[in-house]
Amino acid sequence: MTKGSCLCGKVEINAETISHNVGVCHCGFCRKWTGGPLLAVEAKGEVKFKGNESISKYQSSDWAERGFCNTCGSHLFYHLLPNDSYIFPVGLFADSDEFVLEHQIFIEEKPSYYNFAEKTKTMTGEEVFAQFGEE
Fold first, then answer.
1. What angle do CA 126, 127, 130 make, to 5 degrees?
2. Angle made by CA atoms 15, 17, 18, in degrees to the nearest 5
3. How confident is the model at residue 8, as a pLDDT?
4. Which of 32, 42, 56, 91 could hold 70 in an S-S bridge, CB 3.0 to 4.6 Å?
5. 117: Cα separation from own chain's centroid
6. Domain range list for the chain
7. How many other C-beta atoms lie within 10 A of the C-beta of residue 30?
8. CATH 2.170.150.70 is held by the domain 2-131
């Protein structure tokens, strides 16, 4: 199990495993939610939470909800409802040299005031939705 937690420690995440491929989302929703691009990793397998009473959820679209700690405000997850998958801000987990910036999505929504030096795969929002069968 891979463990992560919010800033105050009231919420603990236990994921069977997480990808070490960090993705960046530039969509307007994520930028409003985080104050910048979302740098995240995907959970693989079972996910459990400790401190459920400290988790608040916001359904940000028909297909996803976002969770945050109602004590410290840490962003906890982006939960894709159709396939019950979780995407977590990478900062919730211990720093690791194994994390690699691997891809960027909603690249067409990225504002011009920042750029990443790493060369990654980039996808438009349309390409992301096509990958998941959404329109």
1. 85
2. 95
3. 98
4. 56
5. 21
6. 2-131
7. 25
8. yes
